[in-house]
Amino acid sequence: MADLTTVALIGIYFFVLLGIGTWASRKIRNTEDYILAGKSLGFWIFTILIVCSICSGMTLLGVSGFGYTSGWPGIWEQIFVPLAASFCIIFFGVKLNAVGKERGYMTVQDYLAERFESPRGMRALSAVSGILVSLIYLIGQYAAISIVLVWIFAIPHWQALLISGVIIIAYTVIGGLYAVSWTTLFQGGILILGVLAMAPFVIRSAGGLTHINTVLAGIDPNFVEPWFPSPVYASYAYATPEFLFSFAILLMVGLACAPHVINNVLAAKESRYFKWSPLLAFGIYAVVMFLVKFTGFATRVLVEEGAVTLPDVVNAQDFAFIVGVEYAMPNMFLWGIFAVIVLAAVMSTTDRLMLTIGTSFGWDIYKNLFRPAASEKEVLMVSRVAVVVGAVGTLILAINPPPMLAWLIWMGIGVMLATFAVPLLAGLYWRGATGAGGIASMATGLVAAGVFGYWHKFVAPLPMHFSFFALLLSLLAMVVVSLLTRKNSPEILDGTGTGWFIQSGGVRGEAERE
């Protein structure tokens, strides 16, 4: 049971979040304010928002748990995930921000609907797909929050979910992206400073990296290799060269095109931010990720040497960071601070997912498909109701925690990759991509992700992440159908900045070459 100090610190943390939400609600005057914070995000808020939208329960709990079970072969994750932030800003952000301001986009679905000249079909499919993948991903975030609150307060899992859900729903509903972005800046600062301060203590308590590597090699010599050999010889030894190839695409591209991540690029105030934010986002996140992974290694050593014991639950490895900090820093006040750090990591993604679900339904489905004449006030109300309904629904689904948090989150990312990557990249950079091709690609990717995911989970394990095979089918559908169907009008292609360039200034040159 948590002591009074821990309860007080968490109470203050929650109070600050609600306070930010209340302050942010005063800035909401229209739908653009709620969805995109008036397109006014400054450099630091935008950069940290991108990082923390990618950062999630996987970063502290899932990453350390992956390190605990798989050792060094899983270290590639520490490069691939930070690269997702840079990939999103460079390959999506530069062009979408410029075109979005010119064309008045509110969501990435606005772009897809115009670029593929499909105001109903493509918008509906992409909005429903975005809501679906966000719901899957959100379940993983709730599982992570529950792990923390169960540990702190020794309360049942369902009570932990209820507490966290009420707090996040409250400030997201009332403050929109203004609340999400400012709470994220607050939470991101806590996360970064907290990991920098606490992870080294855990690593040192396990004897340092040299001793850690010695112990890991004693458990399995491949724990200190860059990857596991093929074929897979144990349930934890799946990080083979072929899996890691698909893993790189999954994390770097899949996370970059996730709706709750890519929509942030439409809210940046200045396009000049995109010059330095990719490097800064990568550097910040990479340092955090490496330290968390090393903490997972350290906790494995502490368990092997009998210094600590993980709880007897199905997702025991996801407690690695918590148990390691508890051992290395046996101080009630520090535990309270650590609890806030973990909550900040998880909640900084959870609120963005909730907002994505709400705005996709309120703006893309309700406003643009069913009630074009809906007022600003009506759209805001529907978006807020959708946030609540989506959040409550996923809370119910999260009651039974997954065996491994990272796997649930990777599943969500896999569906994002298979569904959005090809339509977005082809739409932005290939003038031959057609409306029919875009719809075929997205639909094929969504269905194929479900089929291959089911096959991998319940029939026979695949040698690569299931999303890779769905991605190939999505690409094939885009190319074949686009080559066989009517091309988009040159005016639309020019207006949406389509072509083999990143800077929006290349639109004119591309049009002239045509």
Automatic annotation (TrEMBL):
The transmembrane residues are 6-24, 44-67, 79-98, 124-154, 160-180, 185-203, 243-267, 279-299, 319-346, 379-399, 405-430, 437-456, 462-484
Q: Which PROSITE patterns match?
A: NA_SOLUT_SYMP_3 (PS50283)
Name one molecular function that GO assigns to this entry: symporter activity
Subcellular location, principal? membrane
Per UniProt, subcellular location reads as: Cell membrane
Q: Which GO terms describe its cellular component?
A: plasma membrane
Q: Which PANTHER family match?
A: SODIUM/PROLINE SYMPORTER-RELATED, SODIUM_PROLINE SYMPORTER
Q: Which UniProt keywords apply?
A: Cell membrane, Ion transport, Membrane, Sodium, Sodium transport, Symport, Transmembrane, Transmembrane helix, Transport
GO biological process terms on file: sodium ion transport
Instruction: Write the lineage as a comma-separated list.
Output: Archaea, Methanobacteriati, Methanobacteriota, Stenosarchaea group, Methanomicrobia
UniProt keyword annotation of NAD present: no
CDD domains this protein is in?
SLC5sbd
What InterPro entries is this protein classified in?
Na/Glc_symporter_sf (IPR038377), Na/solute_symporter (IPR001734), Sodium:Solute_Symporter (IPR050277)
Keyword Metal-binding annotated? no
Family label: Belongs to the sodium:solute symporter (SSF) (TC 2.A.21) family.
Q: What is the name listed in the Swiss-Prot or TrEMBL entry for this protein?
A: Sodium:solute symporter family protein
Q: What topology in the membrane does the UniProt record assign?
A: Multi-pass membrane protein
